[in-house]
Design brief:
The protein has about 375 residues and is an alpha/beta fold. Helix content is about 40%, strand content about 20%.
């Protein structure tokens, strides 16, 4: 007998697959202890009784099925388990069936890869306690202006707001965007590089950014979407995605021309904590206020990016993991190559090897654990 309790691993897996459709076995670490989750999935692949409460209906079914090998191994709901989705929400099963062609999945590499990118982003949102369930989220409007008071950070999957924007559907179908996160006072476009450099769609992404700008104006009262989150396993790969997007496209369609800020968020527990930081109200100023006094902050024009000057040392914070700013900071270092100025970068422990390689020996790195920053900005 499997008893499904709110907040349990089984409940989380059902919530996740009801929206994602399938999830990569290689990313189970995002859901907690990988060993524990693997044991649970093996158990849920067996026929057994499942119930949600002591007095509730008992379902006799497998819950999950896994298929594929190695990186392409994928986890899906078992067909006979779909009635379990009604226990999550009255609209959960109908959403799932509409989104995934009545429980029919393609076995093609690119379809699975795309679903895995989306699934990882949904898992990150779920574990960061963002609302991600489309059947609960307010529907985004593309015809009238009807601002939604986003008191809770919310993740909208791209397929849902694309389908809601019929006029732009043909222009945005093949873009790489995964979704958009609304948080109190702001929003982020969401992409997922996973393990490889993401092929930037250029003009398509420019068009989807325009679509997003219209959506956020109508639904959140914001003027623009000026930041993007890049989920992935390697910051160096994400950085290469940013650089290649500019190298292979016109200057107006590169990623950090479309989005002024591009934050790398690792697919890990550190990334989940960083995602929680990046969706706090006024998170950027809260982060800077936690480390710098007003008189230490730059005033007026500067020839390079920095956040404070302390005892003659120029301090740059990479605690926001903004790759676009990091690129500008490194370019500024080259301009300052002949000076004797000292530079310090605040960063996370998980960024150590990447920043040592990218910035070289001229910059002193000061490391923090992600949870320390989390506590500092609360």
């Amino acid at each position: 007998m499997v008893n499904v309790k709110a907040g349990s691993h089984v409940h989380q897996l059902l919530q996740l697959l009801a929206v994602a459709g399938e999830f990569p076995a290689s990313s189970l670490h995002l859901l907690g202890s990988e060993r524990v989750i693997k044991i649970l999935i093996h158990k849920l692949e067996q026929m057994q009784d499942v119930r949600f409460s002591a007095e509730g209906q008992v379902y006799h079914t497998k819950v999950l099925q896994a298929s594929g090998q190695r990186k392409m191994r994928t986890i899906r709901l078992f067909g006979g388990a779909l009635p379990l989705l009604d226990e999550l929400h009255t609209r959960a099963q109908s959403y799932y069936l509409n989104a995934f062609h009545q429980h029919k999945f393609s076995g093609g590499f690119y379809h699975i890869e795309r679903n895995h990118r989306v699934g990882e982003a949904i898992a990150m949102a779920m574990m960061a306690e963002l609302e991600f369930r489309p059947y609960i989220l307010p529907q985004l409007q593309n015809r009238v202006k009807n601002p939604i008071p986003f008191s809770k950070s919310s993740f909208y999957i791209a397929r849902d707001f694309k389908e809601n924007s019929y006029d732009e559907m043909d222009k945005t179908t093949f873009t790489r965007i995964i979704g958009v996160i609304f948080y109190p006072g702001g929003c982020h476009a969401v992409y997922n590089t996973r393990n490889a450099m993401m092929k930037w769609s250029g003009a398509g992404e420019f068009k989807v950014a325009a679509l997003l700008a219209d959506l956020v104006r109508r639904n959140a009262g914001l003027c623009e979407v000026d930041s993007a989150l890049l989920f992935g396993n390697d910051p160096a790969v994400a950085l290469q995605t940013v650089l290649e997007s500019d190298r292979n496209r016109t200057s107006s369609t590169g990623i950090h021309s479309i989005y002024r800020r591009v934050h790398f968020v690792p697919l890990s527990t550190d990334g989940i904590k960083l995602l929680q930081i990046l969706t706090l109200p006024n998170w950027h100023e809260r982060m800077l206020d936690a480390f710098f006094e007003p008189e230490q902050r730059p005033k007026g024009f500067s020839s390079f990016e920095y956040d404070a000057r302390i005892n003659g040392v120029y301090v740059f914070s990479h605690l926001d993991a903004d790759l676009a700013r990091l690129i500008r900071f490194r370019e500024g270092l080259h301009l300052e190559a002949e000076t004797k100025n000292q530079f310090e970068v605040l960063c996370y422990t998980w960024q150590r090897e990447f920043l040592k390689s990218y910035l070289g020996d001229r910059v002193k790195l000061k490391f923090y654990r992600t949870e320390v920053i989390q506590n500092a900005v609360q």
